[in-house]
Write a structure and sequence with these properties.
Elements (H helix, E strand, L loop, with lengths): L1 E4 L10 H13 L4 E4 L33 H9 L4 E4 L2 E2 L5 H15 L3 E6 L4 H7 L6 H16 L4 E4 L4 E5 L12 E4 L3 H10 L2 E3 L5 H17 L8 E5 L5 H10 L1 E6 L6 H14 L5
Parallel strand pairs: 1-2, 1-11, 2-3, 3-5, 4-5, 5-8, 8-9, 9-10, 10-11
Antiparallel strand pairs: 6-7
Helix pairs in contact: 1-2, 1-9, 2-3, 3-5, 6-7
């Protein structure tokens, strides 16, 4: 089992000193990945956030949410092994040509450590502010995934879809591995199907074991339909608490990575929390 840190660049961790402390300490303690989040802006009012009782974003609607990729480039410069992941980048809000360039650049700077976690988004008002049709976001996400892979291949790239069309053109630099793993986020049936058809991984935003089992089953079924090996799709999930019992239950479902939130937002307490997790969980897995 691998362990990641979620919400690693937002809120208090938008401060570069604290982000750097989190990244270096997490790497030292054996965490495999840091996961950033994205909202380019929070309209007021907006569709209620499903993860809170009052419908507001974690930390409030005015919480600092930096760009999901730029802080990962900063982390790349001060770390050596920890993977740099977006969890998630709202893919249909970005043109794939720009996204391919930015992701490949961070991958190059980090020596091939990027995981591109993507989602289709849930806040309609954010799409409205950007002038993007919220109801087309699913189809745009599917096309953008395919376009990214075309742009990352050697030589010139071309793509012809309903929403994106380009090429032939050069998009350089290429990622270190000539590709970047794409992990699909979300907890809907559509997200699970997308992960099976197009993804290298699936990262649902639910913790209930029965719901995870249902979603993972959809992913595997869709992968088989698409001619993909379902055993090659990596399953990650969030966890409110971690112990030997629930880790075994998650592993039995096929989960290979558990993502937890930073244990504190002050440097000394953060160090103690990460070291405690290393001693009590990572060292015993």
């Amino acid at each position: 089992m691998k362990f990641g840190i979620g919400f690693a660049t937002s809120g208090a961790f938008s401060d570069p000193a604290l982000l750097g402390h989190l990244a270096v300490t997490a790497e030292r303690c054996g965490f495999d990945s840091l996961w950033s989040v994205e909202h380019v802006a929070i309209p007021v009012p907006h569709t209620p956030y499903a993860g809170s009782k009052d419908g507001k974003m974690p930390g409030g609607d005015d919480v600092a949410i930096p760009d999901p990729l730029i802080p990962l480039a900063y982390v790349a410069a001060i770390t050596k092994t920890i993977k740099l992941a977006t969890g998630i980048l709202i893919l249909p809000q970005r043109h794939p040509i720009y996204t391919a360039k930015e992701v490949a650049t961070v991958d190059l700077l980090s020596g091939g450590r990027v995981i591109l976690g993507i989602g289709s988004g849930w806040m309609k008002e954010e799409f409205d502010a950007l002038g993007i049709d919220f109801h087309r976001r699913g189809a745009m996400t599917d096309e953008a995934i395919q376009a990214l892979r075309a742009l990352w291949r050697d030589g010139t790239s071309s793509f012809a879809g309903k929403h994106f069309k380009f090429g032939p053109l050069y998009s350089c630099p290429k990622p270190v591995r000539k590709d970047v793993p794409i992990h699909v986020g979300g907890h809907s049936t559509a997200a699970a199907r997308r992960a099976g058809r197009y993804g290298d991984g699936f990262f649902p935003t639910v913790t209930n074991p029965e719901k995870l089992k249902e979603l993972f089953g959809i992913v595997r079924t869709e992968a088989k339909k698409a001619g993909h090996d379902p055993d090659k799709i990596e399953f990650s999930c969030m966890a409110r608490s971690v112990d030997a019992g629930n880790l075994k239950a998650l592993a039995d479902l096929g989960v290979s990575r558990v993502v937890v939130n930073p244990p504190a937002a002050k440097p000394d307490a953060l160090t103690r929390g990460l070291e405690k997790f290393q001693q009590e969980v990572i060292a015993k897995v």
